[in-house]
Amino acid sequence: MQRAKKECQIQLQQQAAASTGCLGEWDNFSCWQNAAVGEVMTLPCPSPLLLLFGKNGNLSRKCTEKGWSNVYPIITIACSSNNTEEPNMLVFYRVVRVLSTLGHSLSLITLFTSTIIICLFRRLHCTRNYIHLNLFVSFVLRAMAVLTKDTLLFSDDENTDCSTQPSLVGCKASLVFFNYFIMANFFWLLVEGLYLHTLLLVIHPYSTCLSIYMLIGWGIPFVFMVAWIICRIYLEDTSCWEMNENPVPDRLINWPIMVSVIINFILFISIIRILVQKLRCTDVGGNDQSQYRRLAKSTLLLIPLFGVNYVVFVYLMEPDNKNMKKVKIFFDLGLGSFQGLIVAVLYCFLNSEVQSELRRTWRSLSLKRYVGRDCKLHAISVSRNGTENSQFPRNSRAQSILQTETTVL
């Protein structure tokens, strides 16, 4: 509407002013040109309303001696309809986008912090935390790719529209990285399930090579992405590759993700079964309530790590029911964006090993600070009096305080 208003003002300025009749004007919806007295002007419905409601109506005004008549028929009757589904969907998409942006931003901050913590502390370097680290990185890359893609494709600024740019290489590359990082994130969730299931099943000490997990997490999605790019070039090389009219490229993305989610769900059920058996063996003298409490806690902790929430809609890749489609979009894009935040909090900030390392580091820094303060007080005392014995009571008191604080720490 703002663009139509600017175009109307330019057109009216270019027209010669009429001495008689009605002057052209913009009535907040349509652009009416100069007209003679008695002339009836008819215009189609404004294009924004046509996009919203899809109703092809006409609006008319008559130029009288007193000026323009009112628009007839009423614009709400001629150009709108009772079907308010499209405007409601636009509001719904905007809410989901804001929620998704918030979730990915918070996830990006917490995951980046978790990655730094695991990399800094050498005691945390093991296969299990290396797998967690790769999962965190996949979530970080996924969040960055989503935010970049939304900025390029769905920005409110019309100057960033990829379809109007001279070169679509950067826009297509953003879609390639976006799809690759999402697929890699799902496969690293699968790696988490495989690793934990292997630990619970194997009795003797055994460790799978980390390179195998790296191949599953980063290598398999790379193979499918190469196939997707080839299919895009030869089957559907249109616009910014964001449209999916040909089903083949879309299946190369969705089907591997669907298979990884199903396999992870099977591993999740198997792990819960193993946990039930182990709890029954270890809690022989315990009550059923404690067993159920521990089992529920283990289950809730494993759900975000395995991505079990995706199983609910895995069979609905493109649901036909519009209400079900809204529910799927809300959970997958809206609430699903907070999964990285939940994983970072549960498996880094609430991890007992990480907390012990942070406490150990804090104690070390506190001890150094108190020791440095005591040495500084001692040096000042010696420099003022030239001898250490004159300030012996004060230094002894400082040392006793230091010993007390060190003991407390």
Automatic annotation (TrEMBL):
Annotated GO MF terms: G protein-coupled peptide receptor activity; peptide hormone binding; vasoactive intestinal polypeptide receptor activity
InterPro entries: GPCR_2, GPCR_2-like_7TM, GPCR_2_extracell_dom_sf, GPCR_2_extracellular_dom, GPCR_2_secretin-like, GPCR_2_secretin-like_CS, GPCR_2_VIP_rcpt_2
GO BP field: adenylate cyclase-modulating G protein-coupled receptor signaling pathway; cell surface receptor signaling pathway
Transmembrane segments: 98-121, 130-148, 177-203, 215-235, 255-276, 297-317, 329-350
Mode of membrane association: Multi-pass membrane protein
Residue stretches making up the G-protein coupled receptors family 2 profile domain: 7-83, 96-351
Family recorded in the similarity comment: Belongs to the G-protein coupled receptor 2 family.
SUPFAM superfamilies given in the database record: Family A G protein-coupled receptor-like, Hormone receptor domain
Keyword tRNA-binding among UniProt keywords: no
Protein name: Vasoactive intestinal polypeptide receptor 2-like
Gene3D superfamilies cross-referenced by the UniProt entry: GPCR, family 2, extracellular hormone receptor domain, Rhodopsin 7-helix transmembrane proteins
One annotated Gene Ontology cellular component of this protein: plasma membrane
Subcellular location: Cell membrane
PANTHER family, A to Z: PDF RECEPTOR-LIKE PROTEIN-RELATED (PTHR45620), VASOACTIVE INTESTINAL POLYPEPTIDE RECEPTOR 2 (PTHR45620:SF22)
Keyword annotations from UniProtKB, A to Z: Cell membrane, G-protein coupled receptor, Glycoprotein, Membrane, Receptor, Transducer, Transmembrane, Transmembrane helix
The keyword Membrane is assigned to this record: yes
